[in-house]
Every structure is written in structure tokens, then in C-alpha cells.
Amino acid sequence: MSSDSVSNLMKGHMESLAAEGKRADGRGINEFREVKIETGMINTAEGSSMVHLGKTKVLCGIKLLIGTPYGDSPGSGTMTTSTELAPLADQSFDPGPPREASIELARVVDRGIRESRMIDFDALCIEHGERVWMVYIDLHILDNGGNLFDCCTLAAAAALSNAKIPNVQHGIADEDVDLPVTCWPISCTFGRLGDTVILDPTSDEESVMSARLTVAHDEDGNIRAAQKGMNGAFTDAEVREAVKTARKSDNVLREALKGI
Amino acid sequence: MSSDSVSNLMKGHMESLAAEGKRADGRGINEFREVKIETGMINTAEGSSMVHLGKTKVLCGIKLLIGTPYGDSPGSGTMTTSTELAPLADQSFDPGPPREASIELARVVDRGIRESRMIDFDALCIEHGERVWMVYIDLHILDNGGNLFDCCTLAAAAALSNAKIPNVQHGIADEDVDLPVTCWPISCTFGRLGDTVILDPTSDEESVMSARLTVAHDEDGNIRAAQKGMNGAFTDAEVREAVKTARKSDNVLREALKGI
Amino acid sequence: MSSDSVSNLMKGHMESLAAEGKRADGRGINEFREVKIETGMINTAEGSSMVHLGKTKVLCGIKLLIGTPYGDSPGSGTMTTSTELAPLADQSFDPGPPREASIELARVVDRGIRESRMIDFDALCIEHGERVWMVYIDLHILDNGGNLFDCCTLAAAAALSNAKIPNVQHGIADEDVDLPVTCWPISCTFGRLGDTVILDPTSDEESVMSARLTVAHDEDGNIRAAQKGMNGAFTDAEVREAVKTARKSDNVLREALKGI
Amino acid sequence: MAGQTDMELIKDGVRLDGRKPDELREVKITAGVLDNADGSCYLEWGNNKIYAGVFGPMECHPRHKQKADRAIVQARYTMAPFSVNDRKRPGLDRRSSEISYIVSQAFEKVVMVEEFPKASIRVDMQVVEAHAGTRCAAMTAASVALADAGIPMRDMIPACASGKVNDVVVLDLNKEEDNYGQADLPLAIIPSTGEVVLLQLDGHLTPDQFEEAMDLATSGCMDLYKIMRDALDKSYGGKK
Amino acid sequence: MAGQTDMELIKDGVRLDGRKPDELREVKITAGVLDNADGSCYLEWGNNKIYAGVFGPMECHPRHKQKADRAIVQARYTMAPFSVNDRKRPGLDRRSSEISYIVSQAFEKVVMVEEFPKASIRVDMQVVEAHAGTRCAAMTAASVALADAGIPMRDMIPACASGKVNDVVVLDLNKEEDNYGQADLPLAIIPSTGEVVLLQLDGHLTPDQFEEAMDLATSGCMDLYKIMRDALDKSYGGKK
Amino acid sequence: MAGQTDMELIKDGVRLDGRKPDELREVKITAGVLDNADGSCYLEWGNNKIYAGVFGPMECHPRHKQKADRAIVQARYTMAPFSVNDRKRPGLDRRSSEISYIVSQAFEKVVMVEEFPKASIRVDMQVVEAHAGTRCAAMTAASVALADAGIPMRDMIPACASGKVNDVVVLDLNKEEDNYGQADLPLAIIPSTGEVVLLQLDGHLTPDQFEEAMDLATSGCMDLYKIMRDALDKSYGGKK
Known about the structure:
The complex is a heterohexamer, with three copies of chain A (260 residues) and three copies of chain D (240 residues).
Chain A: H1 3-19, E1 35-39, E2 47-53, E3 56-67, E4 78-85, H2 100-114, E5 125-127, E6 131-143, H3 148-162, E7 164-165, E8 177-178, E9 186-193, E10 196-199, H4 203-208, E11 211-217, E12 223-229, H5 236-249, H6 251-258
Parallel strand pairs in A: 4-6
Antiparallel strand pairs in A: 1-2, 2-3, 3-6, 5-6, 7-8, 9-10, 9-11, 11-12
Helix pairs in contact in A: 2-3
Chain D: E1 10-11, E2 14-15, E3 27-31, E4 39-45, E5 48-59, E6 72-79, H1 94-110, E7 119-129, H2 134-148, E8 159-165, E9 168-171, H3 175-180, E10 183-190, E11 195-205, H4 207-239
Parallel strand pairs in D: 6-7
Antiparallel strand pairs in D: 1-2, 3-4, 4-5, 5-7, 8-9, 8-10, 10-11
């Protein structure tokens, strides 16, 4: 039987399950997999975290370097996000230049942090127009079990919450202080399986779903970011419903983040 | 019938026509297609032009930025020319890194402007050794109907003639002034069809011609640049004759340029 | 007969010869090919050499430029080594980005010079933290007859010994002086042909040998660098024996270097 | 999306450029402006200026991207170096790559890709002047170019953003609103079914504001859809 | 390998980190830590932290690298940007390329490549925290991951460096010793035959010191080999 | 081509390096200097120093460049980093790419490409010391290397520039003349037919000066042609 036929069989099976509100791993359609967050394991990083979301594992390291600000924002620090889809994480990952899917992932995670103004960039100014802290968020995906969007966003939040500004090492101040964080955007990603919308898809579910919707809220229930992906569609009603579901469902991730 | 055979038939037909002094579009062998020049359509550019040469359409934008001069010419502005063969301009254009033909085009247009000293680079110095104007000439090819060399050179000349130095915006002086232009090099490109040399080849003619010769003169009839291309040859007499023809034939382009 | 079979025949023949202590070109197993060193042929370089090792020919040029030191060594000059496997040197050399084998070659030559501290980098400081001499060692391989490692190392040593610091041209001092060299590391490369270890393999021998070992000593008989390559192995005893052999065999190269 | 500005972007229900909150900038669309492309479009949307061109269905390169049972859409969004105040370096940056990718996927939903196995449909969008909202403008131009090329489609895709400035939900952000506003929500829909094929959001919206922004962007898409059809009618009329 | 330092790196036979000259840093190895990889390993060696993952045997890409009569090993060594004090730019630099290349070749000696014509065995080594000796640590982790993946091998390859500090030959340089020491000699051997599959050397060693350094590195490899086998036993035990 | 200099480059009909206006710099050509290449040449032209090597006809890579009915010529012109006073970055820059491209095309006119369908003839030109006029010198060296390789050709292609300094038309510009002169016209011809296969021009020439420059460059090419044939005769002689 060709791999296409296998894939079609799996697709049919998963869609039927979803239509009955069930999933292959026993979860409900709006339920997250088990989440586990550890922090501070990388001594060479200013902040670090390892997040397990089901079988997905992402290691995040934060580096804080001193640099010059951009000309159009002389009083603000800068931020760079990159995602490394390590070849050991997935058989299909090619080593080499980032592909479009990887660029989309990095940009969605980056925007979720940047545009929500999670980091107080103005507090990262050392000397106006001259020296600012540059925040590098490097996401190292070690095991791709699906839903990299939410796992990466969570890992970045956890590592940022763990990060210290290395004032002492650079002779800026007498003590290292926490990186200034203003809000906690948490993303929830949905997939469309047939006519059902499910939360937190596994990699098996991702391989047969037709559309993806990622929605991030802050701790006050305001929406901070969204991204629809893949070549299927959602109805207007599905989009609005997913946003409401996200507002309720992100609690489990939010609690895990508070627990660290 | 294979596309090679079609191409051979077309080649034979066009060569026969040319031998009789005729062309597929009814022009004489030393006649330019209709030329149309518009300027100033791009508000984000310091200068801009759109040139139609038959079906060929090229949009040129000039940007003027402040930078540091090269060490070996501390009192001169700089210039960079790039050509973008937009994928929408030609089915055969691959998106991706510039190919050799595109590099040749950009370099011939660049040299035609640079080596003729069309722009008075010394007048682009703001502060000796410290700050100069950097001129960026970006040629956007929107429709490739043949003879990109002449259309691009003309578009660059038109956009340069339309460009203003943005003194006010950068606090350099109280008013914006015209970019200083010293001469008007205009190029004429010839193709060899069988044993006949024709002016301003269309893309159909380019696909069957064996050699290309581009010659640029200034308004005083002095030759400023030349480039022979493709894997055919010209006789010595053909080269000298083409240069003379160019001197006469560039008037139609020169008039169009003056008319803007 | 397939090229694999030819190659297998050649392999068998060469291994049998080697087992008897003989080689296709009549040399003994621990004998270098004829070496010839010329220097100073490139006037645009601060130092230059051409080394012939059998049929292998390498041209090396040294450029000395003024630049800023690295932040972690403000009082030291810098060094960059690059190898160019010119397409004319070998039918199998692809033009294009450096392949892994070429990177290994450049890095082994570079380390042999850098880590042995052959060049006195501290003497290349012009102004502490501000200006230092940057040494560029460019190795141009013109003919690949095998054993590029030793030929490149020797060419670099010869060109460095020939190099003058261009003080006068840059207004640093009243006269140009020799580049300060502290020791003379010379490398000897061995190949494993069947169960025999041979010195200075030709390109034919390289194509059938299973492992490579490069060992560099200084003039006092101290080992300065080593690199094992290829997907075969050496016994511990072979490694130790090769190191001893290298110490004796590098004399012929050392004499050639002194003779320039 | 600075989100924290004192700048007054809307006053007494009137925006800096004179528009009401639910008003689009002026949109002018001309189909069939290029000779070589199988279909093309020139679009002005406020001061945005965009060319779109379509080739195909044609053989898909590189081969390993071919799909055995359908065509793929290879959309490419680029900005000319002179399209912004600071010169943009030529070539595909990460932002352009992401837009190209999500636009390609949105079009695969409406183009009848199953009719052309192994083929590619190439859609090129060239932004030659940019003043906020170029991804929506480029998608809109691309839809018209696809229709002009006669590529079989279920529908065209109008694309339009809503957003928030000074706590007011507004349609179609201009450049100042994009720079100093509080949220931006680009949306592309299939008018005949109401399905959402592209949705992005940055900034800050309360639950109610999100509902309002969705309503507004959807209604903007429907207005735009009429302008797109008029442009095609005019083009077909002109060709007769 | 500054080679000319006044820094006292060893005093009365005790090194800065309290080790004796012939002592390894602590090595902790866990096999089977990743789900997707066919085999995997997490290794801590002093403060070095490394993940290794193996896929294969699988079809070899790109095709022109295929060998008609055997598999190839495609090893890839990379350092995470946050693995060092100054942030490292992501991607394969020249140092990583060289290490990847020589490690690939070393494994082709022990993996039964002749059993899998045209195939590729992919070995990925991710250094997530680096404190000297990462190439040996990465190779060691890769051996365990290959065994965990059930790839047929003649043997595993322990890899360990010896070196010289303050004129004393020592085993397994730490970061200070690597920065200010006089020589570094990474070695990888096949324990069952004693064959050398990887050997590099930078610095300055007298003939006698070279012999001593070879002895020390070899003995370090044998100590390491035991830790590797214990980790695999524990992993197999755990799986039962 | 500064074109506006007060520098006296020619005085009483004598140039800075002592040459008359119509005089070539000294040219020394040696064929067959490399072992691996099928044909090779070392050329000194004034202080210019160039190696050329030829391989082929051989299978054409990459495949999509193959021509069904003829061979292609893949010429590659590069300058060594140490060939100029300021170090040149290694690799193909835009200038080298253009020269490689037009030189490839020029040789396709004279090599009997129709005899070798689908094949490639690789021509590599390495400039190891540069003092103006290197593209002509490299082409000349390549012609000799092609002949040395026994590649069937209609003729060799001598290449030589004329130019203008202090309003005087001169042959074969040296470095100062190239930097401070008024025009440069590199020309390559087929001696047996007089056809022009390469022509470039930068600078400023009146109509009469252009005619004179063409005459002078052509005559320079013919002088050079004799030197090329002598070098080959000597090489064949030496091989006997």
C-alpha cells in the first residue's frame, strides 16, 4: 500500500474520531497534552528553559549582549528570535538554510513576544543612543511531536522569566537583575481535522489536518497575536469560537509557567 | 514539431526578412520601437521613471542616502546599480540569485553611467572624507520585450534627471536641488540576424540572433561605452558601421528624454 | 571494465608494491618526492613562494594589511589562511563553495602555523588595542599531484620567510622589516596502503589509500601539530612510528627551505 | 504597533487622512497591464503601488516540489528597494518569505489545483511603493491577475486589514496608524463562503474589540470584492 | 594553546578543578532521551552538555553522495548559539564543518556500512553548553546514540583528549587548561583493536611527552568506554 | 578612467614606461606548464602573471547547461587575493562573473563546439599578479592552453586593449594609464577572418579616435598572435 494510501486511511480515521469529539491519544478536542517546564539548566546562557509538551521538547537559551540601538529607537533594547530545527528532532528536517515553514515559526514566535511588548524594551537602555541590551532568544527544537508554535512560545516565555541581566560581568551595575517582563502572552494552536477544530495537535494530527490557527492572549484575556496557516480554511464562526476557547484553555500552560 | 525545429524555422524566417531590410513588426533595420517615458511616479524614491520601449517596460527608482566615501576618493559620492529581473517580466526568469546574463546587464548599464561620469560625483560630497551622497539606481524590469540594455540605460537616465537631493529632510541645506548631471549617454543596441545587423531587437529577435553590440554616445557624439555580447561575431566593418548608425539613431531616444 | 574495477586493480597493485617496500614511482616508502622552492615572484604580495613537490605545485602569497585587533587579544596581530583549489589544478575540482576536504586542508595548514606560534603575533602590534598587522596567507594550488597538506604547509613557511612588513608604504617606520618568525614547523604526511604506511603519497596513491596522518615538527624535533584523516585507521604503534619517521624525514624539506 | 503613544490618530470620528473609521483608502485596479505575463494587474491602494503577474499552469520547478495529484501555487512577494523611505536591500528577506508562504497557501484553497497535477502556478507580486497594508494589497492584486490569466478559481480572495488606534477599531490602517496604532489584523476571505484563508494579528484587542475588528475587516473585504469585479468587467469589456 | 603563560594551572599535582593529572571530569550518559530519533543520547561531561540523535539507515540525500557498495555516515556537529559565553552565530562554521567531516569518517570505520549499500546514517550532535573537549564529548554521545538506534557496529568509539599544562601531561583539559595550556591531543580509538580513528594535535610536545600523552588519552578512552557501556546497560535494563 | 587628470602620462611621444604609443608591453608565453590539465599556459604580460588550464571535452555539469547539438565553453576568470595591492576577497565577484561570461561566449565562436554534443570544455584563468589588461592577457593565455590541449579550434583569439591618455590614442594601457587615462577598449579578434569576438569600451572617444583605437587594438592583436604561435611552436618543438 502506498504511503499516500496509508496517509489517507489515517486521515479518515482521525477525522472520524474528531467528529465524535475523540482523539487518537485519548484527549478531548480542546485539551492540551501534559506540559513540563524546567529552567536554568544552561550556565552559559543568561536565561534558559526546557519545555516538554507531550513528546515535543524545546530548549530555549537567552543571551544578553551589549550593542548599539537602532537609529529610530535610540532608547530601546533590541530582540532577535531564531528557531533551530535540529536534525535530530525530526527525520524529515533537512540540515541547511531555514525553509519557509521554519521562517514562519520563528516569525510568529518573535511577533508574539515583540508586538505584545512582553519585554520592556525601554528598560533595556543603558546609555541613550549609545548602548542597549540586545536580547537573543534561541529556540532549539530537540524533538518534534507536533505544535511547535505553542511549545516554542512557552519555552521563550519561561526562559525570559528566568533571565538575569549580567550587569556585574559588564560593569554596568552592582548586581544582576531580572529581565523586565510586562505581560505573559500564551499561545494556543488549533488544527482543522475534517470539520472539527482541535487544540494542540500532535505531529500525526498535523500531517493530516488542513488548516492551523494560533491565538495568543495575555493574562488579562486580551488577544495579542494570531496567525492562520496551511492551505485549508476556517469559517468565520470557527475563528471566533477558537479565540474564546483559547482564552479558557491557556490556563493549564499559564499555571505551569507560574509554577517554575 | 520540436521547439528546436520551431526555433529554427523562426530563425530562418527572421534572417530572410532582415536580409531584405524588413522585420517581423514592420520596422526598418535601424529603427527604434516606440518609446514612452514617464517620471516621478514613485513618491518614496528621490527620482523615478517608467520607460516603455515597444513591449519592454522598465521602472527605475533612485534612492539617495548619506554614507562615508571610499578611502581612495574621499571627496566623491558613490553609485550602485542593480537590475531586478522580476519573475513577472518573463516566463523564463527564475527567481533567485542573479545569473550571468543579469550581471552583464547591470554592469553594462552601471559602466555606461559611471565611466562616462554622467553624474558629477564630486558635487555629491557633503563633508570631505566624512559624508557623501550614495546614489542607488534600482532597475525593475516589469515586462521583457527585448533590448533591456537600451531600455534600462534610458530609464536610469530619465530617473537621474528627475532626482532631487533631499537636503531638507537630512538638514544639509535649505532646499532640495537637482542631482548634478554632466552629460547624457544614450545606448543603442544592435543584433546580428544572419548576415544583417539590426537595431533595437525584440525578444523574438534576441532568441535567434547570434551576436549583440551595445554602443553609448553622449550628446556631443562622442562614444562613451560599448559592449559586444553573445557567442557570435561582428566583422570589423560592421562594428564601425554600427557605431556610426548609433550616433544617428539615438536621436529618437534623446528627444524622448528631453521631452519629460 | 568499470572504473571501480580499474580502481580495485590499481589498489591491489599498489598495496602489493608497498608491502614489498616499493612504490610505483620507484621511491622508498619513507622518501619524499623531489622538492623545489622559489620565492618572491609576486610583486603585489608582501611575500610569495612557489613550491613543487613532485608534480604538485602550490603558489602562496602573503598580504599584510592594517586592521584592528580582536577584543580578547588587543596586543596581537591576526592571521587568516585560505586555500584555493583552482579548477585548473585537478579535473575533479568543482568551482564553487569550499567543500569539506578543502576546509579540512585549510584548517590543518592554518593550525599548523597558528598553534605552533610560528609567527610572533605580539610583534605585529602597531598600537595596542588600535592597530595591528593582519597576515593573510593565500594558498593557490595550481597542480594537484597529491599530498597538498605538506606542499601547502611548506609553501606557507617559504612565503612567510620571504615576507617583509611594508612599514614604509604605510608610514609606520623608516624601513620594511622581515616578518617575525619564531620557529619552522614542517609537516610530513603518511598514507596507509593496505597494511603499509607510506610517506608523501601521490594523487594516485591517495585515491586508493584508506587513512592519512599528518605530523608537523619544529626544528628542535618537538611535535607541533597532527591530524588523522579519511575513514580508515592506524594502529597505535603505527602512529608512534610515523611520528618518529617524520622527525627524521622532514630534513629534506627543511634543507630546501633553508636553501632559499 | 507601538501601542503606547500620545499621538492623536483619530478625532471626533475622523482620521488623520480624513477617513471615517470604517472607510477604505481609495483603491484603483487595472487588469492586463503586462504583455509577457499570462495575467497581470496594477493596483493603487492609497499610496501603495503594486504590480502582480501570473504564469501557468506550467511545469513545476524544482521537481521535488511537484505534487502528484494537484498543482502548487508559488507566490512571491517582494518590495522594490525604492518602495520605502530607507532603501530596502534587494531580495527575499524573512518577512517577504513568510508573506510569500502564507499567500501561496491561501491561494491553494481557491485555485482549482486538482485540475493540474504536477503543475505550478507562479504568482509574482512586486510592491513598488509601500505605505502600510501591502500584503493585503498584493494579495488582492494577485487575485485579479489570476482571474486575468484565466486560471480556474472557486472565487477571488479580497484581503483587507482592520486595526485599533486610540482605542477605536478602524478599517485599513494607513502608515501613521500602522506605526503608532495598537493592533493590526490582516484578513483574507472567500466571499462566496465567508471562509477565512488568511488571518494575522499583532497588538492588543479586548474580546469585544476582536469581534468588532473581524466584522469590520470582513465588510472591508466585501467592499473590495466589488472593486475587483468591476476592474475585471472593465478589462473584459475593453478586450471585446 | 597560548603556550606561554605564567598562569599556574597545576600545583603539587592538583589541577584548578581539583583533579589529578590522569583524571577525567565527571561523565554522565543517558541513552534513549528523544522520541523521534531512532537512537539518542544526552551526555554531560564536566559542564559540557550534548544531545546526539541518529536516524537511519535511510535513503541517502543528495543522491550524488550515495555509494554503490556501502552506506555513508553523515555526521553533523553544531554548537547552540547560547552554548558559549559570547553568543555563537547559528549555522555551520568552518570549525564545525571540519569536525563534522572527520567525525563522519571516523564512524565509517566502525559502522557496518557494507551492509547498507546506497544508504545514509545520519548522526546529529548538538552541543548546548560548551566548556572545552566538546568534539570528544560529542563523538562519545554519538557512539551511544548509534548503539541505542541498533545500528550494527564493530565497536563503539570513545573519544578523549590529553594535553599539556605547565609542562605536565594531563588528561581531559578543562576550559582554563584549554585556553592557557601548551598542547591538546584529542584521540578516538576502537577499544577492541586499539586502532586510532581520530587524532588531532595542536601545541608543543617533546617526543617523550607525545608518547606520554598518547598513553594517557588511550587510558582515558578505556575509562570512558566503561561509562558508555554502563549507560547502555542501564538503558536496556530500563526498557525491559 | 578618471578622464580628468593633470597627470602627464605621455610626453614627446614617450609613455611613462618608455613605450611608444603603438607598442605592446613585453609578452612571454610558455605552453604546457601544468601536469594535470589537458592543456595549460603561463603568460607574463608586462608585470601581469597568469596561469590558464583547460580540461575537456568532458561531460557537462550541471546537466541543465548541456546543449544537445554542441559543446559549451565554461570559462572562469579569477584573481588571486594577492594579485593586487589591496587584498582581493577570494571567489567570483560580479566583475569576474561578467568577464567569465563574455570570455566563454567569445571562445564558443572559435572552438569546434559542434563536434562535441552535450560536452563541456572547461577553461580556467588564474590571474596571480595584476597590472591592467588582465582580461585580454587571460584570454590570450586561454587560447594557448586550448591549443596545447589539442581542442579543435578555427583559430586562436589574441586579445589586446587600446585606449586614450592625454588625448593620445595608445596601445595596451599600463596600470597608471588605466587609472588616469581617458578610455579603455579591450578587443579580441579572429586573426584569420578579422571578426570581432570581444569588444568593450569605457571612457570618452571622439568618432575619429574610436577608428584609430580600433586600428591600433587590431594591430596589437596581430602582433600578439605571432607571439602566441611562436610559443606553441617552441612547446611542440620541446616535446619532440
